[in-house]
Each structure stands twice: as C-alpha cells, then as structure tokens.
Design a protein that fits this description.
This protein is α+β, with helices and mostly antiparallel strands. About 35% of the residues lie in helices and about 25% in strands.
Length: about 425
Amino acid sequence: MKLLTLLDKQLMSMGACILDNKNVQVKKKILFLGAGEDQAIAIRLAKEMGIKTIAVDENPNAIGLSIADIGICTYINNVDFLIKLGRKNNIDGVMAHAVEIPQVVAKVAEELDLPGITPEVAERATNKLERIKCFKNNDIPHPRFETAETSEEAKIKSEKIGFPVVIKPLDKAGARGVLKVNTKAEVQAAFEEAKGFSKLRTVLIEEYLDGKEISTESVVNDGEIYTPCWADRNYSQSEKYYPYMVEDGGELPTKLSEREKKIVEETVKRAIRALGINFGAAKGDILIHNGQPYVLEMAARTSGGRFCDTKVPLSNGVNILKQLILMHIGEDIDINELTPKYNKSVVERTIAPKPGEILSISGIERAKNIEGISQIYLKPEVKVGGHINALTNNAEKIGYVIAIGDSHDSTIKRAEEAIEAIKIITKKEK
C-alpha cells in the first residue's frame, strides 16, 4: 500500500479505498470505469500493451481491481471524483468496457480534454426514449413506440400500438426490466416491473417485431465506420422465459445473406451518424422484419456477454477492444486490424439450470474435454449451497459455454453437448 498524499486522503473521504498493485513506469495511462469479469479482459489487454491501468469499481472484490496497476474501490458514476482521480494521475484516456455508463465516460473525457464523444451524444445514445426519437426524426427504421407514466396509460398506449408489445425501462441494459406483453391483462404487472428497474417515471412501450435478430459492433474512427463484428442472437428458448426477453447465446459468423448484410450495414451506419457517435464503439441490435432492418438499439459502448472481446476474435481474428484502447489513449490505429482474417464458427449457449438451492455440480471436466469447447464459465457464487434464481434478464445468467469449429452445425452440436454434460442439480425452494 502506498503512502497517502493529501489528495489520496481527499479521495478516500469521498468513499474510495486505494490499492497500488505495482509501481510501473510506462508511457501511457488509462482509467477503466468498472473492474468486473468483463472489464478485467480489457484491463489485462491494456497491461499487455504496456499501458498503465487504473481501475475503479464499487465492488471491493471485483477481479479487475487486483489486476490493474492501481485498483480503487468507489462508485463508478461519481464524475467529480473520477475527474480528480484522472487529473491526479495525469491519465491519457478513460473508457468503460461492457458497462452502460457512456455519459460518465464522456463527462470525464470532456473535462480532462481526452478522446471521446460529447456528453450530449452519450446521453442520446443511452436514454432509450431520446435514442428512438432520434431514429424517428432521422427516418431510421425502428419499432413504433409510445411512453407511459401510469399503468392505465400503459394499457391505452399498448392497445394503440397493438399486441404484442414490449415494455421496457428507459435507463437499463442487459434486458433488465424488459418484458413481452401479449394481452391487456398483462400490462399492469409488466409496467410495474419495468418501472421498478428505473430511476425515471416514464417507461417505453414498443411494438413487438419478429424476425432475425443481429448483434453488431462498430468502430468509428476519423469519420469512418467499420463493422467487423456480427452475430446472430439465439432466442430459441424464448417461450421458456416468457414474458422476459432472454437470449440463449448466439452464433458467429452471421448467417445473413450478402444482400441482407449490406442493407443491415447501411442501416447501422445511418443510425450511428444520426446519433452523432463520431468516436469509439457503437453497439447495435438489429432485427430484420419482413426483409426490412429495424434498429432496436445503438449504444455508444462495447458489448458484454463476451461478444467483442472473446467471440469475435475467435471467429474472425479481429480484436476490436485493442483498437478501442489505442483510440482512447490518443494513439492511431491500423484500420487493417479491423479486417477479418479468417472465418470460424463460434457458438455460445447459456448454462441455465432450474431455479432453487444448488445440491450438486458435475460434468464440468467432461464438458471441457469435448472437442472444440473453447470456454466454460460459471460465476464464482455458483457453488453447492448457493441459489439459482429464475432468469429474467441477460445480466442474471450464471454461466455459458463457447464452442468453436469449422462448420456451423457441428459447432452448435458441440456447444449443446457441453451444456447437456454440465449437471447442476437444484432443489426447488418453497
């Protein structure tokens, strides 16, 4: 533990505990907001690149705090604190990976004159209502929508759109508080649940569209938009989770035809430009309904769920996260590094045991030994005596399997065989 300076003491008085893990002399320094499992991948990568890393997270046990050169336990949305921290450490860049806080990143970057988007753009790309209004004003295809502040208003607006509809909070990611509603009788419960996830009074109601759903991830650099990251989202288990919108992993490369891919890519570019995202990552959720791509989401951040940091590099060799780190510390990037180098099949499937107390866990080693299994992950809290909750959103998933292979069908088979091998026995609690 290093000796505390006056500023350190001031920072600690604001609720921070500071760990100086290593005194490393390097040319560039980057501040990461968030230090959980996803964020630790970015922290490790930056260190491998020779960049000094400072990470903050409100969880003192966040793995990235011990990996970073300096780990600080504090709230990641305390802008004043982060500005003081960045100024004290003379940082060259600030970013977040797989965390829905673009506004915080943007405010810190603007105050310290670091690379990034403006706070206004960050807000527009994060608040679901502001975003969909932007799409409407710029003729970007999107679901029809309404807003409501009471359950009675939600019933009226849902009938106006026509069932089924999707009700969601304006300020949450990972499908938290997002529910599909088939009838008027279901609206009140869905409205109350969505509102319970939000700090805002208003909820969003959208028409439900069916079709192929695609995840994209783009890099915006020097006025150009590059989209090397594509995946088909898998909702084959959607009825199992109804009314919640939980996906069962995904598959790369996309099975879209070249024509479909072309029109999706053009729609992605139009959405990014309409929002004003002129730097860094832009994460899209696109749905093709009756041949027309609709933008469900375009966020000014990187994706979670191991999409851009793990599955894309496995599938096509593009390390988008590395290029974004370079951009955020003001370094030039080689756009050739955003060009796919090969084309392998990558399939992820969700580990989703029945809810209840965990009685036993087995089959992990057997699953690991299946040909083509690249990763098996379970959250640390998944252990005998622990508890499994019913899945209501993507953030609650307890684990996953990632398989790789040369053909789509064989890779799906490998992933599903691994899921079948993993036995998590639970006892339903009263």
